[in-house]
Amino acid sequence: MVITRVTTSIMQDNRIKHAQVTRHPIARLLVVLLIFFTGIELAAAHALGQSYIFLRVGDQSLSGRLEIPTDDINRAIGLDLNGDAVVSANEVNQAQDRIRSYLTERFRVYSADQPLRIDYAQFETLDIEVSNFLVAHFRIPMHASIPNALDIEYTAIHHTDSDHRGWLILEENAKTGLKGNHATVSLIFGPHAQRQKLNLMIDPTPATWKKFIWEGTWHIWIGLDHVLFLIALVITAVVARQNGSFQPVVHFRTAFINVLKIVTLFTIGHSITLTLSALGMVTIPSRAVESVIAFSVFVVAINNIYPIIKKQVWWFVLAFGLFHGLGFASVLNELMLGQISKMKSLIGFNLGVELGQITIITIVFPLLFLIRNAKVYVPVVVTGGSAVIAAIALWWSVERAAGL
């Protein structure tokens, strides 16, 4: 089953052996962070819930199956009848009518804007390492030839979890000769993309690449920890510390170069680890990654108030960018694609991340530059804003490290 390929490799009993702590402060900080965090068990603070729609297009028939995490559908319609927090095969069997009714409303297939009847033949459970899934096998009766395009609508779980995604995988397609595909995703459904057109006459890979660009952009926009990290860095890019106090930067070029350094080093850092982790070359427990990301926001915000990092701030941006990249990768690692498709998805997602952060910087930076001369800028924006960000990040650090 393709779900087994989706599992993220979880490091158990992580220990750092033979670590040589150098005299460089960055190396010391990274080693301390790794020693403290890598023994913590996984907590998927960044992982997105995902359903899978497997579709088979025959010469004169449509069929397939839905695979939905039982925890997610249990929260949506309440399948756990005995309250033991486990949805059993027997409970699924007893709730067939409710499941069928729910899926009928939340999963629809259209031909020429006309809804097609979906018959659910069998419901079962699938227990694997990463999660338990409800599997709903379906068949779509066709009374005419298979059209060249279908409209697919998928809204399951979105009303209870806005981060949930539905991945449509075209397993077989008689129109193109496609068989046994478990590597390429054709469509990605979410609250922002609930109904989409599936062209059965073309290779789905290019469309998937574009979807990953959007997913990367969207992930940055909804990732408050990443946004606050960038803002905490940018609010001091338009001022310079002189004799213990901040003074407005005179020239736009100077402030722009400061922001360019920040964005470039952050991009280099997260691109390295995003690539390595997505390709399975680096694996660190999710709770460790998410805790360090929160801690990075705290350090940068506190540094705006009490400058503990002065000359080497750029290297800390690069170092912390490495952990943010691991956070981005946790989203991609939820789906294991074939090597070619994976590379395209990786490039698209990373491009989307860059577009997302450029959008944020484009909005925030000019505004900060315009108000940098105001008397309230340093006490309110720099000090007050950093204090608020630091408080939020400190709570995140404790919350994520403790798995609350």
Total count of domains: 2
Shape: elongated
Number of strands: 12
Structural class: alpha+beta
Q: Main β-sheet, in a few words?
A: 6 strands, mixed
* Ends distance: 32 Å
Radius of gyration: 24 Å
How do the helices and strands follow one another from N- to C-terminus?
Answer: HHEEHHHEEEEEEEEHHEEHHHHH
The percent of residues in helical segments reads: 40-55%
Poorly predicted runs are 1-48, 335-340
Strand order of the largest sheet: 5-6-2-1-8-9
Q: Helical stretch count? A: 12
Average residue-wise pLDDT: 80
Q: Approximately what portion of the residues adopt beta-strand conformation?
A: 15-25%
Molecular structure report:
The chain is α+β, with helices and mostly antiparallel strands and 404 residues long. The chain folds into 2 domains: 226 residues, no CATH class; 154 residues, no CATH class. It has a 6-stranded mixed sheet. It has a 4-stranded antiparallel sheet with strand order 4-3-7-10. It has a two-stranded antiparallel sheet with strand order 11-12. A hairpin with a 4-residue loop joins β1 and β2. α8 crosses α10 and α9 packs antiparallel against α10. The longest helix has 33 residues. The chain starts with a helix and ends with a helix. The N terminus is likely disordered.
